[in-house]
Specification:
Length: 596
Amino acid sequence: MDIIHLLPDSVANQIAAGEVIQRPASCIKELVENSLDAGATRIQIIIQDAGRTLLQVVDNGKGMSETDVRMAFERHATSKIQQASDLFALRTMGFRGEALASICAVAQVEVQTRREEDEVGTTLEIAGSSVIRQEPIQCPVGTNIKVKNLFFNVPVRRKFLKTDQTELRNILTDFYRVALVYPKVQFTLVSQDEILLELPAGTEKQRIEAIFGKSGKHAYTEQFVHIESDTELVSIRGFVGKPESAGKNVQQYFFVNGRYMRHPYFHKAVMTAYSGMIQGEIMPSYFIYFDINPESIDVNIHPTKTEIKFADEQMVFQILLATVREALGKFNIAPSIDFDTSGKIEMPVNRGQSLATPPHIATPSSYNPFRTQAKPNLNNWQTLYPSIDTKEQDTSLGEQSQQQALFDEEFWHDEPQQFAGKYIYMLTSRGLMFVDQHRAHACVLYDTYVRQMELKSAISQQILFPEVLDVTADEVEHVRSMMDSLRQVGYDMEQLDKTSFSISGIPPQMDTTQAMSALRHMIEEVDLSAVEKQWKQQLAMTLANDAAVAYGKTMIQKEMNELIDHLFALKSYLWTPNGKRVVYMLTDEELKKNFT
Ligand code: ADP
Ligand code: MG
């Protein structure tokens, strides 16, 4: 006798249910995700006995037709994907078509649902995978699902449920993970006929506040700085805790494309950004939202697991680290900036718009980096540019003490002024400080370009009439090898034919003539036989030199203030990357020598 046979659906569904529906929390999560996928803007969750007796989700989403509601409870019934390749373009929470089939295999389910276009709705009752009743009903648009006596037919499962308190905690944990990514959806959670949570529609920040901000005098979200960066690969937004708010009991959340995820590797990136700022066992809280092309992540793993694979993990790690680090650094030197703007890194991707000014870290105009305590670490600044010819550096004025002086209280006496069309000078308590305007600007731009290349984030201004760059046959390969980097610094370019390229966008700081001649300079000067990092620095420096404000150009007060602010926000600013002096201090001693 043959002994292999197919399991009846009810048994197969029960087995599958073991994976998808492990406890009331997972059931609620699946139902709420369905409501979100159905476009609901209001979702009510009602539970009795931590979901054991009743667990109900009511939404105002698009509802289901009479036939669809019946289909919805079949296994692998889904409206969200058609074919395997759709899995790589997912923008919905659900896609497996398993949840409803699993739930109705282990509980008594009653649904009421109506679509906007239908005059009457449908009610359907199912228990242990068998349909008990289906009939027309008057009901509002949307879906209302009641799940009663979860695991009524699986006593073992029922026995394994923990105390109500623990199950309720699990429900909240799963619920927050969804509620935090859908701040525009209004949620209500009712337990034992009492409203446990009422979350109005709002911003992400308001949602965080509504969930976690209940205790304490100050707004919970005041403990955070805003992070934001936008690169071609990924965009990252969110909030990270100020170092002093770190503790043992913290909230740490990553979300990707509207889905909660655990990611130990990215967690490490965040922790690395805090190194030196927090010690011991304490940790910062964070709420970080990633947005990435769905093709570059893989969510098709176990239904209840929250790990998600990224195709380009290392690059995302770097971008995340840089983003958090910048935000914290910014916060450190400007502690009083408002939550909404502090630490925001403006790094727009190439969207074709013209940007008159270079991307910069938003700073309030009144902010003077030297009046606050935090100091950029200048101790190792020389090692940053190993190629500098040290003989050229005149140390007779005591570089080290000059650098320290920059940060003393009451160091700055007045606003910067221009002198000889070449220098910006300011009176300080240590002497008269001169800054070479062209070199200073080149340093700032150099830093911007290097960062754009690291983050692969292009900022370009489109030009009305594309330019053509003609090159010689030997230069073609050279240009092609540099093309990715050139794009990252702002040249929107394509190869036209064997020896020419069309340029339709240029770095935002330049005009077309300048940009084209800079392109020539880079082709001539960048030596691609050097290691990659080095030739990219060469490229950045050549471009920065061409783009920087020329000698003889009159600068207005605002431009000078901005330039000075940006210059002193750099890690290294006394010398250009190729070793030319940027800042010179005329001290009392120096003057004395001339007054003998
Ligand atoms: P999945 O979400 O993976 O598609 P489910 O078993 O959770 O699978 O749901 C099956 C189908 O039922 C969904 O694809 C959707 O078309 C429909 N559905 C489920 N819940 C709702 C709801 N609240 N509103 C409208 N349609 C729903
Ligand atoms: Mg679903």
